[in-house]
């Protein structure tokens, strides 16, 4: 589950990480009031206005701007709130901005070249260890740094059983070229950041940039946080931070009815039971010359109601030209699935306007094929994987 910057900073601050202070606003008038409060609390007269969307590169799309007075706060907030922000990480249509973060200006006068670093904490799946990735080249795309100057990216792996050891935090500060007060500040920053990552059950904490001010303070100026959804039952307060406006509406609807669905860009809808079979089915579609339009795992309960819900979800995608149902009947009997397909098709009537290929293998597969073939509906049955692929290829031709 992705969080907004202001939410990520709230989590960081709760674990003792120094962050750029700020508050969120949904209207220009509210933005002005927030700016006034920040001025009273921090003494800053300048404020940074940041669009709150789940995408990086906001500055490149005009979603991050500096306001030097309250009038500019109101004007800039009015420009950003409601805009469709297009960044390198959004679609061509962009993402609608519903709120902005009004943050203190932490770049002191005279700091023409502030020290900005990059830092993230994530799981290295190859080693099964948590990893701190960091660089002296903060404030820019880390992908560009990795491509052009890979020697400027450092990593520090942490054994989950032992946790981050003091010498490792000091090593990070040393590799960033720090000394004195800044060295001690960075050591504390790294330790607190890692603690936040582990305690919040996150899959990613990315801070770009981490700022060293002219008086040697170390703080998070940005925060990209992704939480592990499987652990949200332990964090009810974090679960409440979910912003459904930022998520794919079809995926949200599928989740509400208990379907495992991921929206893709293809033209063949998939309805499968089991994640492994779903992945194999997507490969099958590719080999047949199509592109999977979704990942959809209906699980072990493929009755008429569940199949109908899956149909409706798939058909919300206007790019779908055909649907391939691929079910292995182990726990669930194939004839029950076939009857579910027939009943769902009849219930939906004219709503189904695309060809449907059904491959059922396993318990009572022969009975299931008869049910499909004798239904009188525009549904084609298949037995073998290759047969299903050939029929997909035929309907796309």
From TrEMBL:
Q: What is its EC number?
A: 6.2.1.5
Catalytic activity of the protein? succinate + ATP + CoA = succinyl-CoA + ADP + phosphate; GTP + succinate + CoA = succinyl-CoA + GDP + phosphate
Q: Name one GO molecular function term.
A: magnesium ion binding
* Annotated positions binding Mg(2+): 208, 222
Needs which cofactor?
Mg(2+)
Where is ATP annotated to bind?
Answer: 50, 57-59, 106, 116
* Keyword 4Fe-4S tagged: no
Q: Which residues form the ATP-grasp fold succinyl-CoA synthetase-type domain?
A: 2-210
What are the ATP-citrate synthase/succinyl-CoA ligase C-terminal domain coordinates in residue numbering? 271-392
Domain of life from the UniProt record: Bacteria
Sorted keywords for this record are:
ATP-binding, Ligase, Magnesium, Metal-binding, Nucleotide-binding, Tricarboxylic acid cycle
Q: Name one Pfam family in it.
A: Ligase_CoA
Q: How is the cofactor bound?
A: Binds 1 Mg(2+) ion per subunit.
Question: What does the entry list under GO cellular component?
Answer: cytosol; succinate-CoA ligase complex
Q: In which pathway does it act?
A: Carbohydrate metabolism; tricarboxylic acid cycle; succinate from succinyl-CoA (ligase route): step 1/1
Residues the record lists as binding substrate: 273, 330-332
Q: Name one GO biological process term.
A: tricarboxylic acid cycle
Q: Which family does it belong to?
A: Belongs to the succinate/malate CoA ligase beta subunit family.
Protein purpose: Succinyl-CoA synthetase functions in the citric acid cycle (TCA), coupling the hydrolysis of succinyl-CoA to the synthesis of either ATP or GTP and thus represents the only step of substrate-level phosphorylation in the TCA. The beta subunit provides nucleotide specificity of the enzyme and binds the substrate succinate, while the binding sites for coenzyme A and phosphate are found in the alpha subunit.
Question: Which PANTHER family does the UniProt record give?
Answer: SUCCINATE--COA LIGASE [GDP-FORMING] SUBUNIT BETA, MITOCHONDRIAL, SUCCINYL-COA SYNTHETASE BETA CHAIN
Q: Describe its assembly.
A: Heterotetramer of two alpha and two beta subunits.
Name the record gives this protein: Succinate--CoA ligase [ADP-forming] subunit beta
Question: What's the source species' lineage?
Answer: Bacteria, Pseudomonadati, Bacteroidota, Flavobacteriia, Flavobacteriales
């Amino acid at each position: 589950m992705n969080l907004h910057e202001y939410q990520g900073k709230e989590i960081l601050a709760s674990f003792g990480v120094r962050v750029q202070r700020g508050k969120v606003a949904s209207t220009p008038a509210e933005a002005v009031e927030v700016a006034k409060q920040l001025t009273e609390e921090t003494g800053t007269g300048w404020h940074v206005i940041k669009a709150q969307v789940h995408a990086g590169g906001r500055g490149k799309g005009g979603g991050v701007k500096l306001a030097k007075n309250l009038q500019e706060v109101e004007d800039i907030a009015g420009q950003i709130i409601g805009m469709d922000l297009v960044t390198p990480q959004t679609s061509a249509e962009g993402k609608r901005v519903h709120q902005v973060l009004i943050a203190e200006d932490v770049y002191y006068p005279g700091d023409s070249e502030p020290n900005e670093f990059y830092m993230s904490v994530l799981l290295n799946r190859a080693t099964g260890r948590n990893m701190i990735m960091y660089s002296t080249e903060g404030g820019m795309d880390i992908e560009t740094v990795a491509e052009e100057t890979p020697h400027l990216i450092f990593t520090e792996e942490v054994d989950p059983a032992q946790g981050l050891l003091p010498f490792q935090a000091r090593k990070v500060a040393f590799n960033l070229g720090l000394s004195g007060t800044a060295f001690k500040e960075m050591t504390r920053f790294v330790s607190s950041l890692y603690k936040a990552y582990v305690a919040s059950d996150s899959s990613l904490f990315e801070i770009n940039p981490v700022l060293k001010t002219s008086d040697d303070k170390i703080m998070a100026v940005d925060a990209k946080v992704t939480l592990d959804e499987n652990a949200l039952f332990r964090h009810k307060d974090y679960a409440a931070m979910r912003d459904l406006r930022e998520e794919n509406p079809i995926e949200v609807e599928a989740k509400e009815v208990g379907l495992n669905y991921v929206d893709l860009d293809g033209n063949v809808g998939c309805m499968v039971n089991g994640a492994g079979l779903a992945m194999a089915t997507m490969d099958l579609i590719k080999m047949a010359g199509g592109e999977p339009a979704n990942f959809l795992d209906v699980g072990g309960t493929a009755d008429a109601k569940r199949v109908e819900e899956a149909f409706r979800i798939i058909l919300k995608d206007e790019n779908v030209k055909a649907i391939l149902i691929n079910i292995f009947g182990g726990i669930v009997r194939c004839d029950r699935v076939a009857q579910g397909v027939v009943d769902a098709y009849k219930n939906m009537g004219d709503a189904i306007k695309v060809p449907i290929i059904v491959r059922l293998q396993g318990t009572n597969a022969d009975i299931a094929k008869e049910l499909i073939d004798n239904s009188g509906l525009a549904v084609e049955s298949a037995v073998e994987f290759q047969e299903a692929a050939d029929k997909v290829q035929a309907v796309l031709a």
